[in-house]
C-alpha cells in the first residue's frame, strides 16, 4: 500500500467531453412575452400591429391590431381596433372588432362595435351601433354602394 520506491502512476488523461451545441435561442411566443406599452407622453400616426399584448396610454391616430389590447385611462385611438380581447378605459373613435369587448367606467367610444361578448360598465359613454357576430375579427364586408334612384321610364 504505502511503499517507498514505487512511482505513482500518472492520472489518466481527461476524456474529451463531447461538445453539445447550445440550443438556438428562440423568441418567446407572443403569449409569453411581456406586454408592449405605449406611454402617456407618446403620440403616433400610423397602423400598429402586435402579435401579443398591447397597452396604449398615449394617443394613436391609425388602426391598431393585437392579440390583446388595453386602452388605459389616458389612452386614445382614432382608427379601427381589432383584437381578441379589448379593454377600454380611455377613448376610441372608430370601429372595434373583437371577440370580447369591455368598456370600463370612464371609457368614451364613438364608433360601431362588432363582438362575440360585450360588457359596458356604468358611466361608460358609447355612441354607435352594436353588432353581435360569431367571428367579429373576420374581415367586415364592405358597405354596399348606394344605388342611384331608378329613372322613370321615358314615354
Characterise this structure.
This protein starts with 35 loop residues before the first strand and ends in a 23-residue tail after the last strand. The strands form two sheets. Strands 1, 3, 4, 6, 8, 10, 12 and 14 form an eight-stranded parallel β-sheet that branches. It contains no helices and 14 strands. It is mainly β. The protein has strands spanning 36-38, 43-45, 48-49, 53-56, 59-61, 64-71, 76-78, 81-88, 91-93, 96-103, 108-110, 113-120, 125-127, 130-132. It has a domain at 36-132.
Proportion of beta-strand residues: 35-45%
Beta-strand segment tally: 14
Taking all Cα atoms into account, the compactness measure Rg is 30 Å
Give the helices and strands as they follow along the chain: EEEEEEEEEEEEEE
Distance between the termini: 131 Å
Q: Return the structural class.
A: mainly beta
Inertia-based shape: elongated
**What is the average per-residue confidence, as pLDDT, rounded to a whole number?**
83
Observed structural traits:
155 residues, 40% strand, mainly beta, 8-stranded parallel sheet, 14 strands
Give a brief rundown of this model.
The chain has 155 residues and is mostly beta strands. 0% of the residues lie in helices and 40% in strands. The protein has a domain of 97 residues.
What's the SSE blueprint?
Layout: E1 36-38, E2 43-45, E3 48-49, E4 53-56, E5 59-61, E6 64-71, E7 76-78, E8 81-88, E9 91-93, E10 96-103, E11 108-110, E12 113-120, E13 125-127, E14 130-132
Parallel strand pairs: 1-4, 2-5, 3-6, 4-6, 5-7, 6-8, 7-9, 8-10, 9-11, 10-12, 11-13, 12-14
Amino acid at each position: 500500500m504505502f511503499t517507498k520506491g514505487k512511482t505513482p502512476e500518472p492520472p489518466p488523461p481527461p476524456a474529451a467531453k463531447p461538445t453539445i451545441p447550445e440550443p438556438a435561442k428562440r423568441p418567446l411566443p407572443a403569449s409569453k412575452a411581456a406586454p408592449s406599452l405605449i406611454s402617456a407622453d407618446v403620440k403616433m400616426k400610423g397602423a400598429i400591429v402586435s402579435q401579443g399584448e398591447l397597452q396604449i396610454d398615449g394617443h394613436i391616430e391609425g388602426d391598431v391590431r393585437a392579440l390583446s389590447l388595453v386602452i388605459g385611462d389616458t389612452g386614445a385611438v382614432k382608427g379601427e381596433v381589432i383584437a381578441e380581447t379589448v379593454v377600454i378605459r380611455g377613448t376610441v373613435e372608430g370601429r372595434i372588432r373583437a371577440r370580447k369587448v369591455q368598456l370600463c367606467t370612464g371609457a368614451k367610444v364613438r364608433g360601431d362595435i362588432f363582438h362575440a361578448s360585450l360588457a359596458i360598465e356604468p358611466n361608460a359613454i358609447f355612441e354607435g351601433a352594436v353588432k353581435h357576430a360569431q367571428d367579429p375579427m373576420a374581415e367586415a364586408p364592405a358597405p354596399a354602394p348606394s344605388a342611384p334612384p331608378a329613372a322613370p321610364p321615358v314615354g
